[in-house]
Design brief:
Length: 163
């Protein structure tokens, strides 16, 4: 059944967690500097769509490496955190590969969980331009922190509401 049919499937616990993670991403103060949106389509997956504008450029007129890192790290992080429902993850290492310079436009960072479920998780992400060409790639290692997701305002309000 679809929303168009007027019938909605029940929301699973995993879907509630994913929506809460999306809300957590949107609530982070750093994201006021980046026009971006996170969608979690399924377990171990994430997709961040963002706009690169001249305010993100280095002196030579292309996006600064921090833009690559931010979007790839976030995409890999959120893909991994879909598998952890109680704790906030921390990035412990991240390898980044620049393929091509980024100019202005809409870019997508796709995250995918690779391995690990207990203390350390590994996830990768790739960065695509508007034509679907890869412009960067990264792999991160993420560790469970002592920070409870339920204690974070950006997560807790949405998870309690079941949205």
């Amino acid at each position: 059944m679809t929303p168009a049919d007027g019938v909605f499937a029940p929301v699973s616990g995993a879907q509630t967690h994913w929506r809460a993670l999306e809300h957590l991403y949107a609530s982070a103060p750093i994201n006021a500097l980046f026009r971006s949106d996170l969608v979690i389509p399924g377990e171990g997956q994430s997709r961040i769509t963002f706009h690169v504008e001249p305010s993100c450029y280095h002196a030579a007129g292309a996006a600064h490496g921090t833009v690559y890192f931010k979007m790839l790290d976030d995409a890999a992080f959120y893909a991994a955190n879909t598998l952890v429902t109680d704790r906030f993850l921390l990035t412990t290492a991240f390898n980044l590969h620049f393929t091509r310079p980024i100019k202005s436009g809409i870019f997508v960072a796709e995250g995918k969980w690779i391995s690990g479920r207990r203390r350390v998780l590994v996830a990768e992400a790739r960065l695509l331009d508007e034509e679907g060409e890869e412009v960067g790639r990264g792999t991160g290692t993420f560790m469970r922190s002592h920070i409870a997701l339920s204690g974070l305002d950006g997560y807790a309000g949405t998870a309690r509401a079941g949205q």
